[in-house]
Specification:
Layout (H helix, E strand, L loop, with lengths): L2 E2 L4 E3 L3 H8 L9 E2 L3 E2 L5 E5 L8 E5 L5 E11 L2 E9 L8 E4 L13 E2 L7 E12 L5 E15 L2 E19 L4 E21 L5 E18 L3 H6 L1 H5 L4 E14 L5 E12 L2 E13 L2
Antiparallel strand pairs: 1-2, 2-10, 3-9, 4-5, 5-8, 6-7, 6-9, 7-8, 11-12, 11-18, 12-13, 13-14, 14-15, 15-16, 16-17, 17-18
Length: about 290
């Protein structure tokens, strides 16, 4: 039986397949272990199972008991049954399990509820805003705004392109022959980076994501409104210089997968710009493209 709720679609299994699973007479609750063979587009599959007859509605389940696809038996050749896939929620693997779906539950028997598999996004974009602190001058607070595009290419691995903007204000020491002055320092930087990310538990309510990107950033820095002082105080306090500088960024975050379109992201990141090290904490949103 197919039922709808706010967040999940659910199916019920046949009474006999559930009973066999509970009694240990089948490999699992969700059906019989089977080597599935499918065409390239996974619109038709074949399975050796004499218990299936033409017209049977079947479900294909992954190792975690999530429904990956539904179909109907449409052909028989000896022990082989040909299944036309009606709806697919993800890629079908040959070790997945198959069970008959039934629209008529037995009297007095409550069939188990099965969760639909949600395939991780292939393309997504995201942006975040956070607070930063950098080892510039005497330790300078700032704001980090960043946006990225990512494309999944293998399991939880993604290619990432990222743009980053930093605005930092603080104080820096200026050393003279007679005294040490504390002068205001202001830094703004815009960078472009590329790299990779990896996510665990992508199709779960909460996932973990880490990313490493490398690139360049354009820095505009002044000490007491003077760009010349930035160069003279580079190693003593400024730790950055004006111009294009190498930029590296690593982050670790958690993503709340709220829906198929929008997710929330929180992350901690570490960055290096020239001689300055920075730490940022930010929150943002992720838009799933497909």
């Amino acid at each position: 039986m197919l039922t709808n709720t706010r967040t999940k679609k659910k199916y019920q299994l046949t009474f006999w397949s559930v009973g066999l699973g509970l009694l240990g007479m089948a490999p699992s609750l969700y059906g019989r272990q089977a080597n599935l063979g499918c065409n390239k587009n996974q619109t038709r599959c074949e399975i050796d199972d004499r218990n299936l007859i033409i017209g049977d509605r079947v479900g294909i389940f992954n190792s975690e008991g999530e429904l990956v696809a539904t179909g109907e038996v449409q052909g028989i050749e000896g022990p082989t049954r040909q299944v036309k896939i009606r709806k697919r929620h993800g890629s079908i693997k040959e070790h997945y399990q198959l069970a008959i779906l039934d629209s008529r539950p037995e009297d007095g028997v409550k069939a188990p509820v099965i969760k639909i598999y949600q395939e991780p996004a292939r393309h997504s974009v995201g942006s975040s805003l956070g607070l930063s602190t950098y080892s510039i001058g005497l330790g300078s607070p700032g704001i980090e705004a960043t946006a990225y595009y990512q494309r999944r290419f293998w399991k939880g691995a993604h290619w990432v392109a990222r743009g980053n903007y930093l605005k930092i204000n603080g104080e820096a020491n200026r050393y003279t022959d007679y005294a040490v002055e504390q002068l205001p320092i202001s830094v703004s930087a815009f960078g472009l980076m590329g790299g990779g990310a990896y996510a665990w538990r992508e199709n779960r309510p909460f996932s973990i994501r880490t990313e490493l990107t490398l690139g360049i950033t354009q820095v505009n820095a002044t000490i007491d409104g003077d760009k010349e002082l930035v160069e003279s105080e580079l190693k003593k306090g400024a730790k950055v210089r004006n111009g294009y500088l190498p930029y590296a960024r690593w982050s670790l975050g958690s993503q709340w997968n709220m829906s198929k379109e929008w997710n929330m992201l929180g992350e901690l990141s570490q960055s290096i710009i020239n001689l300055a090290y920075g730490t940022s904490i930010g929150v943002g949103v992720v838009r799933i493209l497909d």
